UniProtKB/TrEMBL annotation:
Species of provenance: Methylobacterium variabile
Name this protein carries in UniProt: Twin-arginine translocation pathway signal protein
PANTHER family with a match to the protein in the record: ARYLSULFATASE FAMILY MEMBER (PTHR42693), ENDO-4-O-SULFATASE (PTHR42693:SF53)
Taxonomic lineage of the native organism: Bacteria, Pseudomonadati, Pseudomonadota, Alphaproteobacteria, Hyphomicrobiales
Pfam family of the protein (one): Sulfatase
Domain Sulfatase N-terminal: 55-369
Electron transport as UniProt keyword: no
Amino acid sequence: MAGVTRRRVLRSAAAGAAASALAGPRTAQAAQPSGQAAQPQNRAAQPSNQPAQLPNIVFIMADDLGYADVACYGRPDIATPHIDRIAARGVRFTQGYANSAVCSATRTALITGRYQYRLAVGLEEPVTTRFTGGLPADHPTLPGLLRQVGYRTALVGKWHLGSVQDYGPLQRGYDTFWGFRGGTIDYFSHRGTDDKPDLWDSDVRIEEVGYATHLLGKRAVETIAASVKAGRPFFLSLHFNAPHWPWETPDDEAESRRIAGSNLRHFDGGTQETYRRIIAEMDTQIGRVLDALEASGVAEDTIVVFTSDNGGERFSDTWPFTGRKTELLEGGLRIPALMSWPRRLKGAHVSDQPMITMDWLPTLLAAAGTAPDAGYPSDGIDLLPILTGQAPERPRTLHWRYRANAQAAMRDGNLKYLKIRDNTFLFDVVADPLERANLKTRRPEDFSRLQAAWAGWAATMLPERPDSFTETYTGSQLADHFGAGEAPTPPRPAAAGESPR
């Protein structure tokens, strides 16, 4: 993006830590496809200012992408021109947070707009191949609530919130699904970590030849074309598996064959160049999606969101933070977050407003002129008043916990309470994004206040379950985790046939 340098991006992070061509009117109208489970009725009063023309929404989620893994967030060795287009046409958040340091927990918060710890599925860190539950059938979801006001809803890519047969996307608010239900797939064989085929069209397992990122991009473009032809507003969730392992570019089919039959984690694989190429391939497909919106004449009235489900993995760039996936250090939680809506939002805007994954539900529902179900109030906030200049940026109080290594965290204004095993910390994450200066003895009142506030919040959530899965890394897997091994309360080991996704 023109005028953006790594130094400028990192300074801001530290300082702040086409007219519609749709056929027919796009008005609010309920639509319930036959053969699908009905979503619970929205008990919230319908706002009287519902827009006569509803914006389309394209929500793009990368998998395990680090905070600085795209050019507009300062990475100097990767060109991401199409992701940068979203930033140039909209807002770039410098203080975007994931709801969890792993994927399925964050996705629970995204689809419900609530802390994931309110639901059993959200206690899995992440959902594994042996997990048999999922989202409760009576819980309102983002796609379901949008469908109630007339949207066509589609998921292309990763689900990871329960089995397709019992807890799949078609039973939780999506009209169509094309993708994979688990945590990742091999980019070529499309098999999951349990070595079973995991590519689906609706609830039917399919076989398709091709590199997964390319196939998802192609399907997303087709979904946009079909939605435009139908003449109704659409909500497209495009959830890539990139840049999640296995470390495979389009030229690495030999690596796919080498690791066939394994759990795909191949700690002996990958390079920085491979990782850069995986991101570049995703960026190209995002460009195809943006071009399809332009060609269809709907770009001006389409909200495009780009973000990640948690902090970066082993090859990621999380600067200026420390930590990575599975850790409540800033690097495990901070994520890129972009939003464009040309008709409503100014372009090339940088926001220091702290935000979190669960904010997307109330924000996108407000854009569609509706609201969360009154029986399931969101724990997030509607960001639109802040983004449109109708309200000032404001401090936030956000909470996390993670069972591996007995982790807890709370952000309150610029301060952050952090616990890892028996060690506790207080950081000013705006002045000290690396989390180096532990202020707990210099500011004991603040430390005690945040520690007590976190405990009070935790008491309102479901308790941790010793039988839930929680992923972590050890010194034998990653050299920079030397000394990391058994936690005081060891996480449950994977059972026979079970694999982290």
